[in-house]
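JOB MANIFEST
job_type = single_chain_structure
chain_count = 1
residues = 417
[input]
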Amino acid sequence: MRLAYLCADPGVPVFGTKGASVHVQEMLRAWRARGAEVRLYATRLGEDVPADLRDVPVVHVPVPAPPATGDADRTTRVAARERAQARAARLLAERAAADGADAVHERYSLFSTALAEVTARLGVPGVLEVNAPLIDEQRTHRDLVDGAAAHAALAAQVAAAERTACVSAPVARWVRQRTGAPAGRVVGAPNGVDPRRVGPCADAAAEGPDPAPPVVVFVGTLKPWHGVEHLVRARAAAARDWRLRIVGDGPQRAALERLAAALGVAVEFTGAVAPAAVPGLLHDCAVAAAPYPAARAAEEQYFSPLKLYEYAAAALPVVASAVGQIPSVVEDGTTGLLVPGSDPAALARAVDALVADPARRRGMGWAARREAVDRHSWDAVLGRVLAGTALEHPGGRAAPPPAAGRRAAGRTGAVPA
C-alpha cells in the first residue's frame, strides 16, 4: 500500500526536535511497520533526520514569508501568510495526487484541505489527525484573520476523512462541535511511545540504596504551559538530595536559569536534543516530572504529553500534575504520583518520597513500563485509529498512476509556493 503522509503546518519541522516532530516521525514508522510505502509531503523539513527514516521520499513545499509591510500593517502580513499556507497545502495535494497513493494520512493544520483534495481525486480513504484545537490556539495566542476559511477547511477535511483521530477527548469534542461530525468517525487517539527505542533506565534494575543523589528529569520544550518553573522551585524546597536535569530548550530557558541561580539550586540544562538522544538522557535517571500548571478552564487541558509515555517506557515513575488527561495515563500510587498543578511544595514532597524509597519507585517504574509496552506503543495507537476502517487491513486498492511529465519527488526537491 502506498501512503501519502501530509503535514502542511509551517510550525512543525517534520525532522526536528519538537514533540510534534517526534509524533510525525513515529507515525511514519508505525505505517511502515504495517507494510506501507510512505511518501512524506511537508512545508517544513528540519535537519535532524533519523537514520531509519532517511530513505523516506520527501516532497517539500515551503511557505514563503510575507513581505515586510511595517507594524501598522500587521493584519495584512498575517492575511498574506494565511493565504500562503493554503497555497502551499494545495501544492502538496497536487503533488500527492500526481504521485498516486492508496491512502492519505494528514496531520491537521490551519487552512489545509489537502486530504480532502487528494482523497477526492484518487478515490482513496484518508485519516485526519488532530493534535490541538488550532483555530482557538491561533486566535488566543497568535493572530487569525480569516477565521471563516480556517473553519471551512476543518469541516472539509473532517467530512472527507474516513476517520478523524484526536489526541484527547477534549480535542475530539472540539472537532465534533466545530464540524457536526458523527461521533463514530471521530475517535480519541492519545500519544504513544516506541518501547524498543526507549528502554528501561539503569535505576529500574538496581538494588539497594542509591550510590549517589538520584537524578530527576524533565523533557520538553521550555514554554509557559509546561510549568517547569514549579519544578525548579520544588528542587529549592526539597528536603532530600536529588539532582535536576532539564532536557530541552525554548523561550523560557533564560528565565529558568535566572530562577535557579536566584534560588541557589544547581540545574543541568541540556538544551535541545535530537529525539534519538532522549533515551540516553533518561537512562541514568530515577524519577521523571511533568509539572504542568493548573489550567484556568477544562478546555485548556486538551494535551496528551509525549513525555509521559517516554518516561513510562524508560521504567521511570513520574510525578505529575493532576490536570487534563494526565490522570488517565498516570495511575496515582501505581505508576507514579499525582500532585496539584502549580504547587511546588507538593511537587517537592512527592519527589522526596520516591527518592527516599528506591524499592517503591522501582516498582512503580516497572508497572509504568508494562503499561507502555502493552497499551501505548505507536503500533497500538495506529491500530486503534484504523480499527473498523478500510485501512485496518492494508491491501489492494491501487491509485491512478502519476500524471505524464511529473517527476517523482526526491528528498531535497522543493516546489515553489
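[summary]
The CA atoms of residues 119 and 125 lie 6 Å apart.
Confidence is low (pLDDT under 50) at residues 396-412.
exit_status = 0
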